[in-house]
Amino acid sequence: MDLGLAGHRALVTGAGKGIGRGTVQALHAVGAQVVAVSRTEADLDSLVRECPGVEPVCVDLGDWEATERALEGVGPVDLLVNNAGVALLQPFLEVTKEACDISFDVNLRAVIQVSQIVARGLIARGAPGSIVNVSSQASQRALTNHSVYSSTKSALDMLTKGMALELGPHKIRVNAVNPTVVMTPMGQANWSDPQKAKTMLDRIPLGRFAEVENVVDTILFLLSDRSSMITGATVPLDGGFLAT
């Protein structure tokens, strides 16, 4: 199915690995122009070799001023995927200020900042657009050691709805995807313990974790005009976890 994304210009954060990298690869494959944002230069270098024409931007999105400088001249962007995120898992009684600051800076504040930059450009051009925020099933279910991470993702879900409400009149749609554990490097690191994985898998009716392409396929659909009547949604990609 042709999603009509060819020729559009997309910006993807957290583009170096996992869901972000898979999204860049998929957008490049369908003929979109892609700006890839990552804090890791080596990841961007290998991505550009793999997908010639991708525009790399190396910046730590946890740094507001550096992000402003890096993206101020980014040019017109039609599609945005806010994928950059961190998962600093700690028992509640051991949560540190540093973990709170980093988690909220990257998982929430950076989404606000990057989305403002893109949305202001769209409005100035009078152009429609689509934004997809990568959230998590952890936004809607409590998980051990996830108190801070879950809080950032719950906030991201409500931010998505608020953005959809305010940007809708400008023909900018905003949605979130809420995957279960995805077999990215971060997912593998946090769920490599078989016993820990079993406790989660036992709560997923389909009995498996998600693969990167499961998430990427949904992101591309939400970016495209095939989903033109969908905004403010949080789309579970969880094998039925939230149904239990």
Automatic annotation (TrEMBL):
<keyword id="KW-0313">Glucose metabolism</keyword>
<dbReference type="GO" id="GO:0005997">
    <property type="term" value="P:xylulose metabolic process"/>
</dbReference>
<protein>
    <recommendedName>
        <fullName>L-xylulose reductase</fullName>
        <ecNumber>1.1.1.10</ecNumber>
    </recommendedName>
</protein>
<dbReference type="InterPro" id="IPR002347">
    <property type="entry name" value="SDR_fam"/>
</dbReference>
<dbReference type="Pfam" id="PF13561">
    <property type="entry name" value="adh_short_C2"/>
</dbReference>
<keyword id="KW-0859">Xylose metabolism</keyword>
<keyword id="KW-0007">Acetylation</keyword>
<comment type="function">
    <text>Catalyzes the NADPH-dependent reduction of several pentoses, tetroses, trioses, alpha-dicarbonyl compounds and L-xylulose. Participates in the uronate cycle of glucose metabolism. May play a role in the water absorption and cellular osmoregulation in the proximal renal tubules by producing xylitol, an osmolyte, thereby preventing osmolytic stress from occurring in the renal tubules.</text>
</comment>
<comment type="similarity">
    <text>Belongs to the short-chain dehydrogenases/reductases (SDR) family.</text>
</comment>
<keyword id="KW-0472">Membrane</keyword>
<dbReference type="InterPro" id="IPR036291">
    <property type="entry name" value="NAD(P)-bd_dom_sf"/>
</dbReference>
<keyword id="KW-0560">Oxidoreductase</keyword>
<dbReference type="GO" id="GO:0004090">
    <property type="term" value="F:carbonyl reductase (NADPH) activity"/>
</dbReference>
<dbReference type="InterPro" id="IPR051737">
    <property type="entry name" value="L-xylulose/Carbonyl_redctase"/>
</dbReference>
<keyword id="KW-0488">Methylation</keyword>
<dbReference type="GO" id="GO:0042732">
    <property type="term" value="P:D-xylose metabolic process"/>
</dbReference>
<keyword id="KW-0119">Carbohydrate metabolism</keyword>
<dbReference type="GO" id="GO:0016020">
    <property type="term" value="C:membrane"/>
</dbReference>
<keyword id="KW-0521">NADP</keyword>
<comment type="subunit">
    <text>Homotetramer.</text>
</comment>
<dbReference type="InterPro" id="IPR020904">
    <property type="entry name" value="Sc_DH/Rdtase_CS"/>
</dbReference>
<dbReference type="GO" id="GO:0050038">
    <property type="term" value="F:L-xylulose reductase (NADPH) activity"/>
</dbReference>
<dbReference type="GO" id="GO:0006006">
    <property type="term" value="P:glucose metabolic process"/>
</dbReference>
